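Sync notes, pocket subgroup
Present: LS, DG
LS reminded everyone that the earlier model was apo-only. Rerun requested with alpha-D-glucopyranose included. Inputs:
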Amino acid sequence: MKVLYASSEAVPFCKTGGLADVAGSLPPALAEEGVEIAAVLPLYQTVREKFGQELEFLCYDYVDLAWRHDYCGVFRLLRGGVSWYFLDNERYFRRPELYGYPDDGERFGFFARAVVQMLPHLNFWPDVIHCNDWQTALIPIYLKDDGVRRDRLRSIRTVLTIHNIEYQGRFGKETLGDLFGLDQGWADDGTILMDGSVNLLKAAILCADAVTTVSPTYASELKLSYYAHGMESVMERCGGKLSGVLNGIDTARYNPAADPQLVAPYTAGDLSGKAADKAYLQKVMGLQETPDVPVIGMVSRLVAHKGLDLVCEVFHDIMELPVQVAVLGKGDRKYEEFFRWAVRQYPGRLAVRLDYSAELATAIYGGADLFLMPSRSEPCGLSQMIAMRYGAVPIVRETGGLRDTVHPYEAQRDAGNGFTFADYNSGDMLYVIRQAAELWRDHPDAFGRLRRRGMEEDFSWNRSAGQYLRVYGEITGAELPQKPQAAPEISENPAAAEETPPAEPAPRARPHPHTQKKGTAKKAEPGGTSSHGPSGKPKRSRNV
Ligand code: GLC
């Protein structure tokens, strides 16, 4: 089974959010399951800066996006049993940030186009292309569009994973032909337009062979207007091809027994180190250094869907409890201003850093007793799993992946791994925060067992990788691979690749003058040089 994983970010190469953690961990986990897996990403400036020395230039070609005809270089790096391919175009990707530019539609249109067009040059012909979010949503569409004329593309199956349906890739309808190079048929048959605009995620949901979301609960929530950001009827149309696969976390990276960023390591069996980590957190964030109150941690983007309104509404009630609160994150101005103001009201008991910092995040996971995550919606959420692994007992709203990972404490049965509330309501949240603080203070043994149950949960990727394998198996009809003893090595020798497509054009083996790595020059072949202008290609019709 050969899978090409397409993403717009992946740890350790480039990251803005949870997608990068998933895209960095899932491909190696699939490799361990015996899948031959490659991943493909844009060659951003940050990747070039951090990994330039390890990148191997393979070849280049020109990619057609509507009337554009642009250079695309292919670089590769081997890591974790995965071939990581990077597609290079400096005009689109040599920029300080990953996203947030007015031409993002064109940039990721180019990327998706390039993934499909450069396939023959990758020495890796996939059975499945696994796409993620709107940035790679055009891939299933281009595969169908080009598949009309290229039989070989029709053999490829596609999976689309929705990490957050809020971001849909919406563009004016004039972009259909002029930017994305798709013909009117895509609009006329109701696939790509939504509310009068091009909606890339919608089209991909309809075109992909399987659609997954990052937790089972989120998969059902997406059929409700409260969660679906206008896409509920599209999700309804998915029928059986929609499923939810819970994300995992990198359990080697997030391991309190061996995390070099912790002051003192600890395990579920021996929590003695955690006291030192709590003292360190209090010191580094300027909280009173006392073991006698529980610390509630929050590591979050400060945006509405993370449930910040609930926190603001009852903040004074929370601070009436014998607790300390440590907040790390940045985001919307109104929440930042709230915390700037609140921190002056509760010196020594509330600490806030309006920032992102991996070190401080670890200090909070390691030092906190409780971890608050009252999201209005949460497709999966990784922080609650990390918090549990570090023995910070989560307090969450029952939504999406929070509902699937945090099970409410039951005193009678001495069961559960956290505290939960169902309705998006600050009173209910306050109630469980109070309950948590009381359990910590009055029943330390029961709290300790609750904490340990969370720490012992299996949040590794192995479980989820197996579920993705089943999805791949269902859509390809192929037998699932046998799990090998050691991670498979994907051939580094292009000549040894078992499948070299017969009737595809040869790649040009000369890098762009600006991107050529020293000592990697390959024999030049004549090739197109224009970067703009009509390509003279025939009009495309859609395979329906
Ligand atoms: C998005 C979601 C988050 C999820 C992550 C990884 O960032 O908002 O809930 O954990 O993607 O799938």
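DG: The first helix runs from residue 18 to 32.
LS: The CA atoms of residues 41 and 228 lie 27 Å apart.
Action: DG to write up.
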